[in-house]
Amino acid sequence: MRPLDLVLLHAPSVYDFRKHSILYGPVSDLVPSTPVFEMYPIGFTTIAEYLERRGWRVRIINLALRMLRDPHFDAEQLIRRLNPAAFGIDLHWLPHAHGALAVAELIKQHHPHTPVILGGFSSTYYYEELLRLPYVDYVVRGDSTEEPMHRLMECLIAGREPRGVPNVAWRTSDGTVTANPLSYVPADLDHVALDYGFVVRSVATYRDLLSHVPFHNWLDYPITAALSVRGCTRGCVTCGGSAYTFRQTFGRARPAFRSPERLARDVRRIAEFINGPIFILGDLRQAGEQYAERFLEAVQGYAGPVIVELFGPASASYLRKLKRALPNYTLEVSLESHDPAVRRAFGKDYDNEAIEATLADALDAGCRRLDVFFMIGLPGQTRESVLETVDYCGALLERFAGGPEPRLYPFISPLAPFLDPGSAAFEEPERYGYRLLCHSLEEHRRALVQPSWKYVLNYETRWMTRDEIVSGTYEAGLRLNRLKARYGLVGAAQAEATEARIKMAVALSAEIDRIMTLPEGPERDRQLLALKPAVDQANMSTVCDKRELELPVGLVKLNLPRAACYFLGSELRRLLTRRHPA
């Protein structure tokens, strides 16, 4: 087996999270991963597959997952043993600022002459600050880095500077930061393949399943994603993936879509290996009704569980078409607030009447389940408004409670831990009523190791202090949990366990606040560390049980015979066609 060309490493949010006592709060309650944010970005898979198609040998290693699953796993020892031509680290979302930089520094300690490449949304935004660090050599900017990575690897193997390689920024031998134009912005996504067959092959090649597992519970709940778009048509003011941010930071004037027929093929391809829900990322209507209809025609009759997003109200006819094409579909809608004025200030311009009609039509059309999300920390939102949103959830549950099984599930969570860099609110905080507490990458890195999520938050609003955001979140969580128990969305034992965790988190928050009044020093550190067992217990599923997000899956979750046949066939093809890149 020839040497590795590129190793892609995914770091935990905080590198030494196993030693720190940090009350993360509900920052990850509504995503599959834990507060360690061990889920690596989809871009890892598309980059690795793209490079392998061109003859490179690439390996993905989920350090965060390995560290989470095994308290004795030594990430530094593994890094020391690796010897690729280059290392790649994702710094996509800003909560990885601490872990990504710590891993980069470890690489340079053990491999001082091996290039370290960073990429992702946050890397793009902070590329100049990153390249002032001695352990970061290159940053590949933008939302589509497959081809720039291929061309950068050619330069690294040839020993030349990447002049002329689009999107690449680097530090020259004299320490000067140089950035090529962010000019590679493909108009569509048909050049990439979200090929889980590549992952199957990699698992078998390296005899390493855990390094490829996306998140902690994935083997029990194998949810996957199909990528419909890069970019967005919407302007949510705090979102680092909004139209504003893509235009200002990533050079993308309009979204790039995957052709609807290829997207339908992706869905069926995933199901060949994995018997779990498939989340189609992005509202299918962003590219127009014709795009959505072409996809639904191409995917017609797929019987597996599929999760579809709506970014706003939809017509009854569209919802019926979804049901005909995808009889086992779940709908996700983010209303953000019950108050249309708050919703508009956030960037979503529709009223309650329109969205409630959509909810009713979706249930009438027979969607399997309807998840409705709300957020805390929005422009114009007070603590009282947050609690009124919970009352609104009760009204929705009362209105749509008919039928033998509940189908409408409301959720509420804080905007945490950070306003996204590059978002409109991050760039113009006063305009939107925010007060930023962290600006630079280094300030965010230091914030991540604070002892509770209140101190990690990089913002307050004109209407809510950090204390009010925290207390409002816990109170809203308690009230919504009780509503869910009343309407049968969760069982009595589960509701009691969630309430106990919320109350424990409230008590721990107060105790941490007390300890933080002590002078900095060994005694404060000792008292914080003494809380770690209780903090670790309170960190998972704080304001709701993460299992509330899960759809039923069968006993057979992975198609192992199919995976084995695919691996043997692809290995034979690789042996017949393999060549080393120039």
What's the short story on this structure?
Helix content is 43%, strand content 13%. With 582 residues, it is α/β, with parallel strands linked by helices.
Structural commentary:
There is one protein chain. The longest helix has 25 residues, at 492-516. The protein folds into two domains: 6-191 and 562-577, Response regulator (Rossmann fold, 3-Layer(aba) Sandwich); 222-549, tm_1862 like domain (pyruvate-formate lyase- activating enzyme, Alpha-Beta Horseshoe). A seven-stranded mixed β-sheet has the order 2-1-3-4-5-6-7, with helices on both faces. It has a six-stranded parallel β-sheet with strand order 8-11-12-13-14-15. α12 (316-325) links the parallel β12 (306-310) and β13. It is globular. It contains 24 helices and 17 strands. By secondary structure, it is an alpha/beta fold.
Could you list some keywords that capture this structure?
pyruvate-formate lyase- activating enzyme; 17 strands; disordered C terminus; 6-stranded parallel sheet; 2 domains; 43% helix; 582 residues; globular; 7-stranded mixed sheet; alpha/beta
Provide the domain count.
2
State the strand order across the main sheet: 2-1-3-4-5-6-7
Q: Class of the largest domain, according to the CATH hierarchy? A: Alpha Beta
Distance between the termini: 18 Å
Outline the low-pLDDT stretches.
575-582
**CATH architectural name of the largest domain:** Alpha-Beta Horseshoe
> Strand tally, please?
17
Question: What integer is the average pLDDT?
Answer: 93
Helix proportion: 40-55%
CATH topology of the largest domain, anyone? pyruvate-formate lyase- activating enzyme
Q: Radius of gyration in whole Å, from Cα?
A: 23 Å
Strand pairing plus helix content: what structural class? alpha/beta
**Major β-sheet profile:** 7 strands, mixed
Q: What percent of residues are in strands?
A: 5-15%
